[in-house]
Amino acid sequence: MTPKTLPLLGLPLLLLACVDAAPTPAPTPAQPPGQPASPLGLAGSYNLDPAACANPGTGEGRLIIAGRSLQFYESQCTTASSTAVNGGGTALTLNCQGEGETWSRQVVLTPNAIGLTLAEAGRPTFTYRRCS
């Protein structure tokens, strides 16, 4: 090698130093815009009475989950916060309204083989069957 060709050997290394080894991928949004995430990804229609599933959205035991909204028979709740809990469930803080009143409640939704359970401190645990 001659002293004249030595600088040429360093040129490719210099060029590589200016280029990223791997392009940084664009961040992927957790949820498409305008489509809030459903708690646990459980969007759908549920009912305490499996026979009532023949007429989705009806009956006193219904629960419809869409986005961050939980629609019960006479009330509607919006998820204010959620936290994963042991056993595969999610603890939710809900802001609810119905029959002219507003309130907050803390529940745990846990998916199961037939739908989901809804547990709330001081109340019975309800098992909802998935209708759709």
Could you characterize the architecture of this molecule?
Helix content is 9%, strand content 39%. With 132 residues, the protein is mainly beta. It has a domain at 39-130. An 8-stranded antiparallel barrel has the order 1-2-3-4-5-6-7-8.
SSE layout and pairings?
Blueprint: H1 6-17, E1 44-47, E2 62-66, E3 69-71, E4 76-84, E5 90-98, E6 101-111, E7 115-119, E8 126-130
Antiparallel strand pairs: 1-2, 1-8, 2-3, 3-4, 4-5, 5-6, 6-7, 7-8
Signal peptide: 1-21
Protein name: CVNH domain-containing protein
Organism: Paracoccus pacificus
Q: What is the alpha-carbon Rg in Å? A: 26 Å
Low-pLDDT segments: 5-35
Between the first and last Cα atoms, what is the distance in angstroms? 75 Å
Series of H and E elements:
HEEEEEEEE
Q: Count every beta strand, where a strand is a DSSP E run of 2 or more residues.
A: 8
Oligomer: single chain
Structural class: mainly beta
**Biggest β-sheet description:** 8 strands, antiparallel, barrel
Overall, the morphology is globular
Q: Give the strand order of the largest sheet, numbering strands 1, 2, ... along the chain.
A: 1-2-3-4-5-6-7-8
* Mean pLDDT over the full residue set: 77
Signal peptide: 1-21
Keywords: Signal
Protein name: CVNH domain-containing protein
